[in-house]
Amino acid sequence: MTKSVYATLILAVAALILAVVLNPSPEQHRGRITDVIAKRSPLAEVLGVGQLTAFTSTYHSLGIASWTTVGDRTVSIGAFGMIYVSH
Fold it and tell me: What angle do CA 45, 47, 48 make, to 5 degrees?
């Protein structure tokens, strides 16, 4: 193998390890869901909609990425320490 193949392999392994280490936890997903819903609607914040949604969400993980669902709907997706909350 050439040096470039080794370098590519090392970078791929490093990215995989980084993804596993930075994969958001259930608590991080739930906190982000609560924060985003509160920012979108002050009324929802007062009524605790974000906390209720976060409480009822189910966490799923592939080790390198994770997501939460409520029923059949995906609420948040996370990878590399970042979490996106859907509408």
Answer: 65
Helices (H), the chain: 3-22, 26-40, 42-47, 49-56
The reported pTM is 0.86
CA distance 42 to 81: 26
For strand 65-70 and strand 82-85, is the pairing parallel, antiparallel, or unpaired?
Answer: unpaired
Going residue by residue through the chain, which has 87 residues, state the pLDDT in tens, using 9 for 90 and above.
Answer: 798 999 999 999 999 999 999 999 999 999 999 999 999 999 999 999 999 999 999 999 999 999 999 999 999 999 999 999 997
Calculated CA dihedral for residues 70, 81, 83, 79, nearest 10 degrees: -70
Q: How far apart are CA 65 and CA 29, in angstroms?
A: 12
